[in-house]
Write a structure and sequence with these properties.
heterodimer, A: D-Maltodextrin-Binding Protein, domain 2, D-Maltodextrin-Binding Protein, domain 2, five-stranded antiparallel sheet, about 45% helix, B: alpha/beta, Rossmann fold, six-stranded mixed sheet, 20 helices
C-alpha cells in the first residue's frame, strides 16, 4: 500500500469515526438523558411600572438581570413596561393586559384596590392580596408639593403671602395676567401645570388635593366634587393650564424642558421636581422652589403580584425575588438619589447623594411639618372627577 | 542520453501524479471531516436543545419620522445601526426609518405599518389616539411609551433688517405686528406651512388666538365667530402660498435668498440651520403673545402584534437617542436637547444670538386647545385661508401610455382629495400635440365630479405641446385678474417638448412680464420619469418663482399630494 492510499484510508476512517460518534450522541439524546443537559428555562418576570419610578426600577432590573439571580435553578429575567397607573388600571379592568404581567407597580395603593374590586366581581376572587407574603407592599414614597419658578414664587408671596390652591386660583383668575400680580408683562398669564389625569394619575391627585384645600378637610366624597360651586372654582383653576395634550403627560419634564414659557408652577410629584432641579438651573435662568402644601397627598408605589392562574407559582416567586431586591438597602439608596423616599426605613434620606439635602436651599425637606394627610379617595370620587374633567376641561 | 531523459521525464510525471493524488485526497478528506463536524454539531444541538448563536435573525424596528428633522434623524439612525446593538439573546437590532408627513404618518401608524413614530409634535399623538379609539371602538389609545429627545419653539423667521424696521430687538414683536405689516405693505410676503405640519397648525392656532384676543381658553364658538374668521381671513390673504412644511420653505429660502419671502413660520432650529449656510441672516422672533413648541416625540405603538423583540429594540433606540453623545449631536444640529444637563450656552452650542436665536426665549406660550377645538380650527382654516385658482396641466401624449397614465390618474385623484376646501378653484388642461380637454376653473364644490370624470377618461396619444398648454393656462389666469387668490399652474410632462407654437424663451419672458404687471402666477412643474425635459421645466418654474420636482410611477401620487399642500 503506497503513501497516498494510506492517507486516503486514514482520512476516511477518521471521518467514519466522527460520523459514528455523532450518530451515537444523537441516539443517546433520543433514548435517555442527553449528553448536554437542557438549559434551565428562563423565568420571565414582566412588571408594569408607574412612570415616576420607572427609571429607577428599570435600572434596578438591569442590574438584577446582570447579577443572574436564580430561583430553583432558573435564571430570572425581569422586563419593565412603563405605564401610567390609570392606563394600567383601565387595561386590567377591560382585561386588555395581554400578556398579563407578573407584577404591577402602580402609583398608589388605591389603584390596586380599585382594580381588585372590579376584577373580584368578574372572577369571584382577589387578584391582588392585601396581606400575607404576596401582599401589595410600598417600595418607595413620593409626596406632592408645589414646584414654582423662583421669580414667580417671589411675586406670589409678595401678593398673597402663601402659596396654596386658593392663591394659585386667584393668580390664575387675574385678568391682566402677571402685570396685575406685580410680575413682568413678558410672563403673560399665570400658567398652571397639571398633568392630564387620563395620561398621568398625578393630575387626578392634584384635583383631589385642590378639593381637600377647598373644603379644608382630608376626606373628600362624591357630593364634594359634584357640588356646582366647587366645580366652577375648579374650572377657573384648570383654565390656567397651558396644555392637556399628550405633551402634558410629563408635567415636571415639561416644566424643565419648556421652562417658564409653558408653566409657572404646579403641584407635582416631589421626586420628579427634585430630579429636574439641576437641569432647570442649567437650562433656564430661573431656579425652581419647592413648597409643601397643608393638605398632603402622596404616591406609595406598591409592588403588587398578580395572583390569577395566568402566571405560575414560580413566576410569582420570581417577582417576589425582585421585590426583595428593590427593598434592599443598596437599591433603596439609589431611589433616594433619585428623590424618592425609601420604603426601607433603614435607609436614611440624608445619605450621600441625597437630593433632599442638595436642594434644601430651594425648599426640599426630609421631614415635612404641619401637614394634614389626605385620605385615599374612593372609586366614585375618582370617576366623578374624571367625568367632570372630560366634560369641562378636555373638551374645552 | 535520450533514454535517460525520457526516464527522468517519466519519473517527474509520476512524482507530479502522486503529489496531485495526495492533494486531492487531502481536499476530499477535509470536505468529509467538515461534513462530519457539521453532523456532530447538528446532533449535539438536537440532543441538548441549546440554541447556538448561528443563523441569528435580526430584529428590525420600523420608525417613521417627519421631514423637517430628516437630516438629523437619518444621522442618528445611522449612528444607532453602526453601534451594533443587540437583543438580550444576541440578535442584531436595526432601525429602518421612513420619512413621512405627520398626516400620512398617522394613517400609516393606524394601519400597523410602523412600530414607532416620531412626528414633529405630540399634537399628532392625540390625533392618532383619537382616530384609533374611534375606529377600533376602544377606550385605550394606540400610543404607548413616549420620550422626547429634542425640542424647538415655533418662531417667525424674518430677515434681520426687516425685523429691525419693525422695531426688533428693542420691542418684542408678535403676531399682531405681522398682521399690521402684511396688511400695510403690499410687498411684504410671508408664509406658513399648511395645517398638515405642526408649525403650520401652530401658526394657524396663533392666528385664531390673536383674532379672538386671547392667549388661552379658545373655544369652538370662538373659532367659528364671524369676527375671528374675518381677522384670520384678512391675515391669510397676505400669505404668498402655503407648502408641505418648514423644511421645504427653508430649502427654498436657501436657494432663492431674499427674493423668496420676508418672513415665514418654522421651528427655531431651522433659523440656526439657515444662518449656518447663508450669508443672508434670519432672526427668530418669539411672538410676545406666546408661541408653541415642537417637541419631537418618539412614541411606541401598542399594536396587538407588537413583539417583545420590537419593544426591546425600541428601548435600546430610545436609550441611544437620550445618550449624551446623541444629545450633543442634537444640540449641534440646532435643537434644544432633552438632556437638561447639557447647557445651551456652552462654547460649542449653535444656539446663539449670532445665529439669530435666543435660548432664554420664549417667555410664554399659547394654550393648546382640546383636540375637538384643534379639529374645528383645521376645518375652519379651509374657509379662511387664501384661496386658490389652480390649473392642472397634464401631458397625455403617446409616451404616457400604460402604467404611467394609470398612476397619474390616481395621483390627480389624490390631489383633488387632498384639497378639502370646496371654495378652491381647480381647472384641467389635458394636452398632447394639442389641447384635448379644457375644463375651466371652477370651485371644487361645483366641478369636483366633472374633474374626476375627466381624469378617469384621460387617454394617451400624440406628441407633446407642453409650452402651448402652459401658455394657455397662464393667459387664462391672467385674464381672471384675481389677486386675492393664489394663482398657480401644476404642469406635468414625461417627455420632450416637440409640438408647440410658442418658444421657451418667449413663454418665460411672457411669464416674467405678466407676473410683474398682472397677477403673480406661480408654476410648479413635475418632470415625470427619466425622459422629461428638466431644463425646460426649470426655466418655466424659475420665470414664475415656482419649483420643479422629479417623480416616477412610484412617487407621482405622493408628489401630487405634496403639491396640494401649497394651495
Amino acid at each position: 500500500m503506497n503513501r497516498t492510499r494510506l492517507i486516503f484510508f486514514a482520512v476516511i476512517g477518521l471521518a467514519l469515526i466522527i460520523v459514528v460518534a455523532s450518530l451515537g450522541v444523537r441516539w443517546l439524546g433520543q433514548q435517555k438523558a442527553p449528553l448536554v443537559g437542557p438549559a434551565p428555562e428562563t423565568l420571565e418576570v414582566r412588571i408594569v411600572c408607574a412612570l415616576p419610578v420607572e427609571p429607577w426600577v428599570r435600572e434596578a432590573a438591569k442590574d438584577f438581570n446582570a447579577q443572574k439571580h436564580k430561583l430553583e435553578g432558573h435564571p430570572i429575567q425581569v422586563t419593565v413596561i412603563p405605564m401610567d397607573g390609570l392606563t394600567a388600571m383601565s387595561r386590567y379592568e377591560r382585561e386588555e393586559m395581554n400578556p398579563l404581567p407578573t407584577a404591577w407597580i402602580p402609583d398608589s395603593r388605591y389603584l390596586v384596590e380599585l382594580v381588585n374590586a372590579a376584577l373580584k366581581e368578574m372572577r369571584g376572587r382577589d387578584v391582588f392580596l392585601t396581606d400575607g407574603e404576596y401582599r401589595a407592599r410600598p417600595i418607595v414614597l413620593s409626596l406632592f408639593s408645589w414646584g414654582i419658578y423662583q421669580s414667580r414664587a417671589e411675586v406670589l408671596r409678595q401678593k398673597y403671602t402663601d402659596v396654596n390652591w386658593q392663591t394659585i386660583h386667584d393668580a390664575a383668575m387675574a385678568k391682566g395676567g402677571w402685570p396685575e400680580l406685580g410680575g413682568d408683562p413678558a410672563w403673560g398669564y399665570f400658567k398652571l401645570v397639571v398633568p392630564n389625569p387620563h395620561k398621568n394619575v398625578g393630575g387626578l391627585m392634584a384635583m383631589v388635593a385642590a378639593a381637600g384645600e377647598y373644603y379644608q378637610k382630608p376626606r373628600i366624597d362624591t357630593a364634594d366634587v359634584t357640588a356646582p360651586e366647587f366645580q366652577a372654582w375648579l374650572k377657573e383653576l384648570m383654565g390656567a393650564v397651558t396644555d392637556f395634550s399628550s405633551l402634558g403627560a410629563y408635567s415636571v419634564e415639561n416644566l424643565a424642558l419648556f421652562g417658564y414659557s409653558m408653566g409657572d408652577g404646579g403641584q407635582l410629584l416631589e421626586s420628579d421636581l427634585l430630579t429636574n432641579m439641576a437641569g432647570i438651573q442649567t437650562r433656564w435662568e430661573d431656579p425652581l422652589v419647592i413648597v409643601y402644601p397643608t393638605y398632603l397627598t402622596w404616591f406609595d408605589f406598591p409592588f403588587t403580584v398578580w395572583m390569577g392562574p395566568e402566571t405560575t407559582a414560580l413566576e410569582k416567586n420570581g417577582a417576589l425575588e425582585f421585590e426583595k431586591y428593590l427593598l434592599s438597602p443598596e437599591v433603596q439608596q439609589k431611589a433616594a438619589e433619585r428623590g424618592l423616599r425609601p420604603a426601607n426605613l433603614e435607609v436614611p434620606l440624608t445619605g450621600e447623594g441625597s437630593l433632599f439635602v442638595r436642594w434644601q436651599s430651594q425648599g426640599a425637606m426630609t421631614v415635612v411639618p404641619r401637614t394634614t394627610a389626605m385620605r385615599p379617595p374612593d372609586r366614585d370620587v375618582l370617576l366623578a372627577l374624571l367625568r367632570w374633567f372630560d366634560l369641562n376641561i378636555a373638551e374645552r | 542520453m535520450a533514454r535517460k531523459q525520457r526516464k527522468q521525464s517519466a519519473g517527474k510525471t509520476e512524482e507530479r501524479g502522486v503529489r496531485q493524488a495526495i492533494l486531492w485526497t487531502a481536499i476530499a478528506g477535509l470536505v468529509v471531516i467538515c461534513s462530519a463536524c457539521g453532523l456532530v454539531y447538528w446532533a449535539v444541538r438536537q440532543a441538548s436543545g441549546v440554541r447556538l448563536p448561528l443563523g441569528r435573525e435580526p430584529v428590525t424596528l420600523q420608525v417613521a419620522y417627519s421631514p423637517e428633522k430628516g437630516e438629523l434623524f437619518k444621522a442618528l439612525v445611522a449612528g444607532f445601526n453602526g453601534s451594533k446593538a443587540q437583543t438580550g439573546d444576541g440578535r442584531p437590532i436595526r432601525v429602518e426609518a421612513q420619512e413621512l408627513t405627520p398626516e400620512r404618518m398617522i394613517q400609516a401608524a393606524a394601519g400597523g405599518e410602523f412600530h414607532a413614530i416620531s412626528p414633529d409634535s405630540s399634537i399628532w399623538l392625540d390625533v392618532l389616539d383619537r382616530a384609533w379609539m374611534e375606529e377600533q371602538e376602544t377606550e385605550v389609545g394606540l400610543v404607548g411609551e413616549t420620550v422626547r429627545y429634542a425640542v424647538s419653539p415655533v418662531v417667525l423667521a424674518m430677515w434681520e433688517d426687516v425685523a429691525h424696521q419693525m422695531g426688533y430687538p428693542q420691542r418684542a414683536l408678535g403676531w399682531e405686528d405681522l398682521l399690521v405689516k402684511a396688511q400695510s405693505d403690499p410687498n411684504f410676503r410671508w408664509s406658513h406651512p399648511s395645517t398638515s405640519s405642526a408649525s403650520g397648525l401652530l401658526a394657524t392656532l396663533a392666528e385664531f388666538y390673536a383674532g379672538v384676543g386671547k392667549t388661552r381658553g379658545l373655544t369652538e364658538e370662538d373659532a367659528q365667530a364671524q369676527a375671528t374668521l374675518d381677522y384670520v381671513g384678512a391675515l391669510e390673504k397676505t400669505v404668498r402660498y402655503y407648502g408641505e412644511g418648514e423644511w421645504a420653505v427653508v430649502q427654498q429660502a436657501l436657494s432663492e435668498g431674499r427674493a423668496y419671502l420676508e418672513a415665514f413660520v418654522c421651528q427655531e432650529q431651522l433659523v440656526v440651520y439657515f444662518n449656518q449656510r447663508s450669508s443672508d441672516r434670519l432672526v427668530a422672533i418669539y411672538p410676545r403673545e406666546g408661541t408653541l413648541w415642537e417637541d419631537h416625540p418618539l412614541a411606541l405603538l401598542e399594536l396587538s402584534d407588537l413583539s417583545s423583540d420590537a419593544r426591546q429594540a425600541f428601548g435600546l433606540f430610545r436609550d441611544f437617542l437620550l445618550s449624551e453623545a446623541s444629545q450633543r449631536q442634537i444640540l449641534a444640529a440646532g435643537y434644544r436637547p432633552a438632556d437638561l444637563s447639557i447647557p445651551l450656552d456652552s462654547p460649542d452650542s449653535p444656539l446663539t444670538l449670532a445665529n439669530g436665536v435666543d435660548p432664554t426665549q420664549p417667555q410664554t406660550t399659547l394654550q393648546i386647545p382640546s383636540p375637538s377645538v384643534v379639529e374645528v380650527v383645521r376645518d375652519v382654516w379651509w374657509y379662511t385661508k387664501r384661496h386658490t385658482n389652480v390649473y392642472l396641466v397634464v401631458d397625455t401624449s403617446g409616451s404616457m401610455r400604460g402604467e404611467k397614465l394609470d398612476n397619474v390618474q390616481v395621483a390627480l385623484g389624490a390631489f383633488l382629495g387632498s384639497i378639502k376646501g370646496d371654495q378652491e378653484r381647480v381647472g384641467l388642461i389635458d394636452f398632447s400635440h394639442e389641447i384635448k380637454q379644457f375644463l375651466f376653473l371652477d370651485e371644487l364644490g361645483s366641478n369636483r365630479g366633472e374633474l374626476e370624470s375627466a381624469i378617469a377618461g384621460l387617454e394617451a396619444q400624440g406628441n407633446t405641446a407642453l409650452l402651448d398648454a402652459i401658455a394657455t393656462a397662464y393667459v387664462r389666469l391672467q385674464d381672471m385678474e384675481d389677486p386675492e387668490r393664489i394663482n398657480a399652474i401644476v404642469a406635468m410632462t414625461d417627455g420632450l417638448e416637440n409640438a408647440s407654437n410658442i418658444e421657451l424663451g418667449e413663454l418665460a419672458e411672457r411669464i416674467r412680464a405678466g407676473n410683474q404687471q398682472g397677477v403673480p402666477v406661480v408654476i410648479f412643474c413635475i418632470a415625470y420619469g427619466s425622459d422629461a425635459d428638466f431644463k425646460t421645466l426649470q426655466a418655466i418654474a424659475d420665470a414664475s418663482g415656482g419649483q420643479v420636482r422629479s417623480g416616477d410611477v412610484t412617487t407621482i401620487e405622493e408628489l401630487y399630494k405634496i403639491l396640494s399642500t401649497y394651495f
